[in-house]
Amino acid sequence: MKSMRILIALLVALPGLVWAASAEINYDMEAFEGDLENKPSLQNGMRMYMNYCIGCHTLKFQRYERTADDFGIPHDIALQNLVFTDQKIGELMTNAMSPEKAKNWFGAAPPDLTMITRYKSSEYVYNYLKTFYVDDKRPFGVNNKVFENVGMPNVLADLQGVQRSRCEGGSEDRCDELYLEEGTGLLSPEEFDVAVYDLTNFLYYVGEPSRLERHRLGIAVMLFLVILACFTYLLNREYWKDVH
């Protein structure tokens, strides 16, 4: 029985240990704070995802209908502007890419991103999307500061522009400095930061769509417990009044 408990404990801890071992990142990442109250940001993030990500990366645990309702988007507008297949509003956010063909093209099938911000963290995703840079040695011509030797093209390159890496002060010891070639992107650096924030904010929502509802419910439960504690105290005092 004891050995069984130890085995169960190891199985529970193993994913966390594997993640801790693979999570070492040497890049000085920017902080990210999600905002699920900001519907324009979430709406733009969904638009970004449907235009740049859904072709390869599914959200197979998220439905169009739930997302549109949470973001205040009418179903007909969502279907017309955000769903580029013949899928219905109640269907899951998937694509037609074959995992076998994707593995041949990219070396590995692109992962589903429904839980990516919970598995990796929103901060990781935000910095990952911002730190692609030109690397002619890589198959897709780019590398990434957060995920070294990434096997993915920079799908936001037309928005961001050409970003390169250089060593600080010419030193070979620290080569984390990134710089953009001016005028090569459709967006300014500030506009691109907003776009990446919105996209990450959308994925932050997708990781737990009921997060706001859970927070509101938690506050209501705590208030109920406080009120219940007051009545319990008064009742307890009334019971013990006759004993003394």
Please give the structural blueprint:
Elements: H1 2-22, H2 39-52, E1 59-63, H3 64-71, H4 75-81, E2 92-93, H5 99-106, H6 116-119, H7 122-130, E3 132-134, E4 142-144, H8 157-160, E5 163-166, E6 177-180, H9 189-207, H10 211-241
Antiparallel strand pairs: 1-2, 3-4, 5-6
Helix pairs in contact: 2-9, 7-9
Please describe what this structure looks like.
- The chain has 244 residues and is mostly helical.
- The protein has 2 domains: 33-209, Cytochrome Bc1 Complex, Chain D, domain 2, CATH 1.10.760.10; 212-244.
- It is 51% helix and 9% strand.
- It contains 10 helices and 6 strands.
- It has helices spanning 2-22, 39-52, 64-71, 75-81, 99-106, 116-119, 122-130, 157-160, 189-207, 211-241, and strands spanning 59-63, 92-93, 132-134, 142-144, 163-166, 177-180.
- The chain has a two-stranded antiparallel ribbon. Strands 3-4 form a two-stranded antiparallel sheet. It has a two-stranded antiparallel sheet with strand order 5-6.
- Strand 3 (132-134) and strand 4 form a beta hairpin.
- It is globular.
- The termini are far apart.
- The model is unreliable at 1-23 (pLDDT under 50).
